[in-house]
Known about the structure:
By secondary structure, the protein is mainly α. It has helices spanning about 10-15, 15-35, 45-50, 55-65, 70-80, 95-130, 150-175, 190-200, 215-245, 270-285, 290-295, 305-335, 340-345, 355-365, 370-385, 390-395, 395-400, 405-410, 420-430; strands spanning about 135-140, 145-150, 175-180, 205, 250, 335. It has three domains: about 1-90, Orthogonal Bundle (Fumarase C, Chain B, domain 1); about 90-255 and about 260-345, Fumarase C, Chain A, domain 2 (Up-down Bundle), CATH 1.20.200; about 350-410, Fumarase/aspartase (C-terminal domain) (Ribonucleotide Reductase Protein R1, domain 1), CATH 1.10.40.
Amino acid sequence: MIERYPREEIKKIWGEKNKYQIWLNIEIAAAQAMEKLKIIPKGVSSKTRRKAKINVSRIHKIENKVHHDVIAFLTSITEKVGNEGKFLHKGMTSSDILDTCFNIQLIQASKIINKDIDEILKVLKNKSLKYKNTICIGRSHGIHAEPTTFGLKLASFYEEFKRNKKRLKNAINEISTCAISGAVGTYANVDPRVESYVAKKFNLRVEPISTQIIPRDRHAYYFSILGIIAGSVERVATEIRNLQKTELQEVEEFFDKKQKGSSAMPHKKNPILSENLTGLSRMVRSYVAPSLENISLWHERDISHSSVERNIGPDSTITLDFALDRLKNILKNMNVYPKKMLKNLNISNGLIFSQRVMLELTKHGFSREKAYKIAQKNAQNSHKKNISFYDSLINDSLINKKISNKDLIKMFDLNYHIKRINVIYKRVFK
């Protein structure tokens, strides 16, 4: 991970000092359990807690010789603890420490991501309520469809991030397990009660059955959820990017007075933050595929997943944390232009009311097929001659025979399209 993106709080979680401290805490907890079970002498855990110090450089020095990170760690701890250090890690395998620690780190990172989502939800709710009745054009396939409101757009994002909050909760639950089960998961050399004690100590569940490792389908699920959340980030970012186009200019990222938009063209205000989010979202999603491939390992374990997780664990959570924080600030400070929204809505000369016209025609005796043809013919006429849809309809003899001018005018009422907006808002913001 390059230094451009990590925020300090989540960066510390993936730092070596925190990792080794978790390892030490697991070893101490396991020792406490073994002491209670009279597997090792009393006092090992307390002395380890008093004497053990995390010395990252010393661990690295030892690892350069032994080429094994956990052994290097245990050696460095024993150097400080003394003779009692020989009782640490009794009956355990490296993965007992590594996997339990990895899950703890993911949980720690997820708590930050959860706070990020809460902040986005707060901003989206405030902005959605503010622009609840700000009418704008809805677009399908990039083409004017029917009127909606900018508030409804934001409410849609809000509901999606509510789902993301639930998904993250489920993902955290999925990886909240602990394995202290020995070389191939049989507990041959370690009492299962040690695992139960450690799990309870760290507010984890006992992994029902492990091999040498915790099954990686759990982690594949977790990283998939991060990918979905990243997709939601990109959805919002893409909408902002599109609405900031010169042709639209309905929404605009906040632009600081001293900010430069282009090195060559001084007039430009580019949606660079939203574009950045699009790229970061792609990166988070790219980590999903290798996490899925980690599910299938040789027999009880190989280490092909290890190098993957050393990268995707920190990088995915750090990137997503940064992206969510940036999205929050974009939403909080964005410029919204209701007048431009209304202006853009009107450029299609009223064609956006074609469905309303068609449905009203069916109420006046026309079949749906006939009503569709009449509405479509006049829509095409409006587009071809660049006249209002209303003017085309009022000059249509078939319509004149059955619909009064007064009734025709009613069909072009913008408020008709937002008359049930409160129903939606009650569902979303209940």
